[in-house]
TrEMBL record:
Organism of origin: Stakelama tenebrarum
UniProt feature coiled coil, ranges: none
InterPro entries in alphabetical order: DUF3224 (IPR021607), SO1590-like_sf (IPR023159)
Domain of life: Bacteria
Species classification: Bacteria, Pseudomonadati, Pseudomonadota, Alphaproteobacteria, Sphingomonadales
Protein name, UniProt field: DUF3224 domain-containing protein
UniProt keyword list: Signal
One Pfam match: DUF3224
Amino acid sequence: MKRLRPVVLARAALCLIVVAGTTAAAQPPVDAAAEDGEARGTFEVRMAPAGTVGDTIGAMSMVKTFSGDLQAISNGRMLASGDPAQSAAYVAMETVTGTLDGRSGGFVLVHRGIVDDGEPELLVTVVPGSGTGELAGLSGRMEISVADGRHDYVLRYRLPD
């Protein structure tokens, strides 16, 4: 494998998110009947290179601001490798703090994005047991779409009674 510069890997990570996020079919179907709530809105993301891991993995820091049914700020880290136009992957974790449909607290999201021969797949899941405050016990999945520079989300979730 050839050695890649952090800037190249950072661009690859951003491209992978856009490629994976623009295709609704790229995400596994969510069983709507198994979820109690659905939150929709948009988010803005700021990313910055955070070095490399070895020669071929780029690290990024990210900060997101969510609007809509989820009013929150998140901070996270991403690792990415490959060429998103062909084959690549990224993983990320972010801590989300704010309100979800009026309930205050926080939770952690874990991302897994893969492009295999140009075919994207994206899975973003609430880490089990990560909910705090009024979001304790939260479970669910987030779908992300990107169009014309706008980032939209749909969080299908369950909270205990």
